[in-house]
Amino acid sequence: MIDAVIVALDGSKLAEQALPLAKQIAEHLGARLSLLQVIPPDAPAERQDEAAAYLEETARELLIPTQVMVRIGKPADEIIASAVDAPESIIVMMTHGRGGLGRLLYGSVADLVVRDSRVPVLLIRAGLVPSATEPLKSVLVPLDGSAYAETALPQAIELARAFDADLWLARVAVANMALGGPLTTRSLAEGYQHAVREAAVYLDEVAERLKDTGVRLHTKQLAGFAEDEILAFERQAAIDLVVIATRARAVGLSGLGIQSLAQEMLRHGVSPVLMIRSAVTA
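Now predict its structure.
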């Protein structure tokens, strides 16, 4: 259960664009909202007082009970440490432009936070800020048939239930090239048909497992290149939030499968992305 929402701020208007969605999540879940600013150890002494005053003023404008935190140290370390006493929290951060994790607020800090945080991290790309008044209406969880990808489901279900939003589960059928025999047009077609059947059966099984969770559940089977198909469906279905697993202690968001899909959703998607750290390896 998500019981705290921590928003990393740096005093800029860009960082503050994360506040409306963070406030909505806190209100719908009944979670505590916290505003955090990290001050470098070598900053002037008055900087801490200035940061506290800024956070307190920002908190007053939100019109809901809000905690403020000023920490001194390395930004990534302190952002992660702020959640140590709130293991059921999420961290919310803004990103810059279309450069994925290469151009994030705090430079490479968000990359480090995603890599090392033990709690979920919600990243919102600049220019794609959700409405301050419209609640989340649809949540998407991309799946690939692995237990690893499914670790995103509990938080997605919790958010969909709190917002009374539709929950979409999507899997892209990818032809299995290990069926054996020579590579022919027929073998490719058979591989594709096998993948489509496998994806359909898997989605039905997951939907059956989740039928009593109290959410409006939909499944979508796609075929083609995973990143392209999921990105296209995100736009088609007007998805408001993507929830996706990231591998524990992975190097940033590099890698294959769901890991690389997470990176593509950040770079080219149209929705905020909630990264769920998974310790599952398969």
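The first helix runs from residue 13 to 16.
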